[in-house]
Specification:
By secondary structure, the protein is mainly α. The chain has two domains: 100 residues, Multidrug-efflux Transporter Regulator, Chain: A, Domain 2 (Orthogonal Bundle), CATH 1.10.1660; 148 residues, no CATH class. The protein is 65% helix and 2% strand. Strands 1-2 form a two-stranded antiparallel sheet. A hairpin with a 5-residue loop joins strand 1 and strand 2. Helix 9 packs antiparallel against helix 10. The chain is elongated and about 100 Å long.
């Protein structure tokens, strides 16, 4: 006859595990002998080993008793059912691993590869990290709301960032990210931005280019708010652009007649 410690050693489990199986009703708990100890026989060792093997194979403890009492065909079907469950758990855990890997990859967690590549290119070209972060947050919003259009929109952005005059203008916008609203460089920057917008609008009009992926007013508002809240000079820059005939930032439009403020001399 064996003590609980000897039983556990024979089956390759801990005493705590044996007691846990007792509590679950999987392994009968013998009565105490005249010395006050519980003694286990060979049948208890065999039963405990069977329980341990099933548990190690991934069988839920709630089903162990069922399998121990099952006949041949019933046992085989139960094992197949457990196998199906384990396969589903493995697939789910693999998805979790992929998500964890994406977390470790930072920006790729919420952005498609072409957008991550665009942000990396911005860093290569010397854009300030503050501007890169604003772009990242903006594209997270766009990708969440317009996933089917993101690839086409990013193709345009990639082409724009390789355009040297536009890149230079964009870099200068980033350099003024922390300037105050009364910074004397802002009017000249607004002139350059307005000139570029005018040229781009004329080119699109001549080519009769249509916007294939219009952005909803709600998303435009979110993106404009991100810009306005990220740069202290942004409200003043938009005022200056409006004085030059253009309104908005994400969805820039000509100012309607009678809407614009007097131009700055």
């Amino acid at each position: 006859m064996l003590t609980i410690g000897q039983l556990a050693a024979y089956a390759g489990v801990s005493v705590r595990t044996v007691r846990h199986y007792h509590a679950k009703g999987l392994l009968p708990e013998p009565d105490r002998d005249h010395s006050g100890y519980r003694r286990y026989d060979a049948a208890a060792v065999v039963e405990l080993v069977r329980i341990r093997v099933l548990a190690d194979a991934g069988v839920p403890l709630s089903r162990v008793q069922e399998l121990l009492a099952a006949g041949g065909e019933e046992f085989a079907e139960a094992v197949r059912d457990v196998d199906r469950r384990l396969r589903a758990e493995i697939r789910e855990r693999q998805l979790h691993r992929e998500r964890i890997a994406r977390l470790a990859a930072g920006e790729s967690l919420a952005l498609p590869p072409e957008t991550v590549a665009y942000l990396d290119r911005m860093r290569e070209l010397g854009f300030r990290e503050r501007l890169v972060e604003v772009e990242r947050d903006s594209w997270i919003l766009i990708a969440a709301q317009m996933p089917e259009a993101t690839a086409d929109l990013m193709a345009i952005k990639h082409a724009q960032i390789e355009n040297e005059p536009l890149r230079r203008l964009y870099l200068d916008v980033g350099d003024l990210a922390d300037c105050a609203a009364d910074d004397p460089r802002l009017p000249e920057l607004a002139d350059r931005v307005a000139a570029f917008i005018e040229a781009a609008a004329a080119e699109a009009e001549a080519a009769e280019v249509q916007d294939e992926h219009p952005i909803s007013p709600e998303l435009v508002e979110l993106l404009d708010t991100t810009f306005l809240e990220s740069f202290p000079c942004a409200p003043r820059l938009l005022e200056l652009l409006e004085e030059r005939g253009w309104t908005g930032w994400t969805d820039i439009r000509r100012v309607e007649p009678g809407q614009s403020t007097p131009a700055t001399p």
